[in-house]
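Quick one:
INPUT:
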């Protein structure tokens, strides 16, 4: 067990599989599994699910409920499928929220069941392959990285599924918090590439509301909109005035969004 822990610490790997343990120790899988079972009882490692473990930091003593770094764990839960941390999780990693997040959101082209490991909820969002774009690498530890949505894709995903980010107002707040680093043309390009009318309407409206894009740029973007109206926030009742320019029902007032922006 000392050999295994030392090897994992040396490479900075805090989450590992039973196959990793077998490879590092040279033990056959049944013996490696027995070793890990005993180590879990002693509180040296925490079993997250079958075949997946996390090293328990020494300062936690003999804890057997340690869940490890949830972002790294999500990478193992996905396996070899294309994925990226998204929605509220990506907003947290990009410093677009002011409150801690307790659910890990992962977008993937593979259908994966939602799971809860040691109290941490993992929510998997299914994506079409054509919609898999706009990702970047994020280093969790010095040797370990994960894939996350870039700033612009994080906003686009939030406007597509606001329920995974706390609502349109929270997405707007995140957009405002990182507006200095936001590439407006990339936002519009991503919305066009995704080709979902509600997303186009919401991103255009917010860019105009925050004064982040010139009218000429937004006017060209509006040409692709159909006559159908959608609510600004689909989580709220469909009430409030209709804005013809963006084909939106404004069920969250501009004042409320602006207030969240500066709070």
């Amino acid at each position: 067990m000392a050999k295994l822990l030392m090897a994992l610490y040396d490479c900075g790997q805090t989450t590992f599989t039973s196959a990793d343990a077998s490879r590092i120790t040279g033990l056959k899988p049944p013996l490696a599994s027995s070793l890990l079972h005993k180590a879990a009882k002693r509180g040296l490692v925490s079993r997250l699910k079958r075949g997946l473990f996390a090293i328990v930091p020494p300062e936690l003593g003999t804890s057997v409920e340690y869940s490890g770094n949830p972002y790294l764990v999500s990478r193992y839960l996905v396996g070899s499928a294309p994925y990226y941390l998204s929605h509220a999780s990506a907003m947290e990693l990009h410093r677009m929220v002011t409150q801690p997040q307790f659910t890990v959101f992962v977008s993937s082209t593979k259908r994966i069941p939602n799971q809860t490991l040691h109290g941490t909820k993992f929510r998997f969002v299914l994506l079409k392959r054509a919609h898999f774009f706009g990702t970047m690498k994020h280093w969790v530890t010095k040797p370990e990285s994960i894939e996350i949505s870039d700033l612009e894709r994080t906003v686009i995903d939030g406007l597509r599924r606001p329920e995974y980010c706390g609502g349109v107002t929270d997405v707007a707040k995140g957009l405002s918090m990182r507006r200095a680093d936001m590439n407006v043309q990339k936002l519009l390009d991503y919305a066009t590439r995704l080709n979902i009318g509600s997303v186009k309407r919401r991103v255009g409206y917010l860019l105009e509301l925050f004064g982040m894009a010139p009218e000429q740029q937004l006017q060209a973007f509006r040409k692709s909109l159909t006559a159908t109206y959608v609510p600004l926030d689909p989580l709220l009742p469909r009430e409030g005035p209709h804005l013809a320019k963006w084909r939106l029902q404004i069920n969250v007032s501009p004042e409320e969004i602006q207030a969240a922006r500066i709070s």
